[in-house]
Amino acid sequence: MAKKKKSPGGDTICLNKRAKHEYSIETRFEAGVSLTGWEVKSLREGRGQLVDSYVIFKNDEAWLVGAHITPLITASTHYVTEPRRERKLLLNRREIDKLITAVDAKGYTCVALALYWKNGRVKCEIALVKGKKLHDKRADEKEKDWNRQKQREMSTSAR
Q1: Does pLDDT of 101 surpass 50?
Q2: CATH top class, domain 12-133
Q3: Which position among 52, 114, 119, 149 has the lowest Cβ density within 10 Å, counted as fewest Cβ atoms?
Q4: Could you give the CA distance from residue 43 to residue 11 in angstroms, rounded to a whole number?
Q5: What is the pLDDT of residue 59?
Q6: Residues 46-60, buried b or exposed e (16+ Cβ, 10 A)?
């Protein structure tokens, strides 16, 4: 039996690193994404971006807004492609209800953190987040610098 080749980048298509810097992440959810054929082909080539993407709720459905999927020139010659269109997220009813109540009542925001492959399907990791204040960002930077400095000292003392 032939084994499937793993792609060199792993199963992750793209990450939203900016969201981890700008927001404190409270709760994470996994959602399926409704895509067209050319979008799947482009994502297989790694042509997706989640910078400035977020989730909105219309008619009790979740929609991914601001995600950019660059079309392939060869795959999308006879389609009218729209790289920044809204894409429907596939979630359970109770998950959607939980997200809607948190966003409306508690002042949370819902953002996309990552796109990745799972069993041949594209999944989107979304999260309930709260915006960080400037002093929170500074504290995180100090902690990262301190951890980096500790690692350097440990590696030089081990020699």
Answers
A1: yes
A2: mainly beta
A3: 119
A4: 11
A5: 93
A6: ebbbbeebbbebeee
* Distance from chain centroid for Cα 97: 20
Kindly state the tokens that stand for 20. Answer: 């981890």
DSSP state letter for 151:
H
- Mean pLDDT (whole number) for 47-57: 91
Q: Residue written as tokens 């996994």?
A: 30
The long-range contacts involving 96-100, CB below 8 angstroms and separated by at least 24 positions, are: 96/57, 96/60, 96/61, 96/62, 99/29, 99/55, 99/57, 99/62, 99/126, 99/128, 100/57, 100/60
> Model pTM?
0.75
| Cα–Cα dist 35/81, whole Å | 12
Tokens coding 95: 């998950």
Give me the mean pLDDT over the 13-36 stretch.
Answer: 90
As a residue count, the chain comes to 159
Question: What is d(CA 89, CA 111) in angstroms, rounded to the nearest whole number?
Answer: 12
**Helix, strand, coil percentages, rounded to 5, for the chain:** 35, 35, 35
Task: Round to whole Å and give the CA distance between 109 and 25.
Answer: 10
CA distance 122 to 110: 19
